[in-house]
Amino acid sequence: MPLNWPCIMDYKGTILFIFVLLTYFMWMDIALYFRVQERVPSATLAALAASTSRSSVTQSSWATRSPSYSPFSGLTVKLMMLDHMNHYITIPLSTFFNEVTQFSHIFYFITPNMISFFDLFVALIAAKLVTSESLVMRQLSVLAFEIRNFLDGLDGVVYRARVHQVENISNVGTFGYAVDGFVDTVGSAAMCFGLLWHLRRQVSLKGTYTLLPAYQKEMCDSSSSQFRFGSLHFSTPAMRRITYAVFFFGLQLSISGAFWNRYISEIGRASCRERV
Questions:
Q1: Is the Cβ–Cβ distance between 269 and 77 less than 8 Å?
Q2: Sign of the C-alpha dihedral computed for residues 84, 77, 158 and 269 taken in this order
Q3: What is the pLDDT of residues 158-199, one digit of tens each?
């Protein structure tokens, strides 16, 4: 079916935002490549430390340090393995927020684990909101889950600020590491169950699925932008298909998270052996 350009142009703001975001991500990937090429091999750093009679020479002391809120500050394998949204937006935004507000110093009584449990609370609220039949409530659910992602980055920022840790590494084996993994798992699982509850509820006993407001072809032109609700007939196993889709999505998150933790754990052990 040919593209209906009047309909597409009604979303030009969204299209422009996506284009700018993708352009930013590509630009930052290119900058990250050149930043990695500038890093000095560990063997060279060891030789420099020996030749200058210094106990250690680090990447931060060798290269020009970036601002702490830069996506390239404290660059590690873990940071480079993160998705674009977390690496280039969420974590720098959390770090910038902490620097501007001095959150880690002013609110010294709030521990990183408290922030982690609060982001779990926000995730549960988001999971509840996504089950609503109101589109506005579901949109608030998306906003709440993004706030949860921001808090997930903030707990690590606060911890590193208080222990004066520059590099973005996971402290495997600590209580905070376990808490962070627990709240991430429960929060993501709650959102998956919320989505499943909402989608299954849309499938009526007659096997119909209520569509979101959609443009109708005959009404979609540059002078008219009207919505109407419709319904689409599904076969009997519609609920099973929805359940399978959400289940395998959650399974994919679980498997990727498990391998991520194992990979980061092995990287941490290798770094410790290298320092020794």
A1: no
A2: positive
A3: 998 998 887 777 777 788 888 888 888 888 889 989 988 888
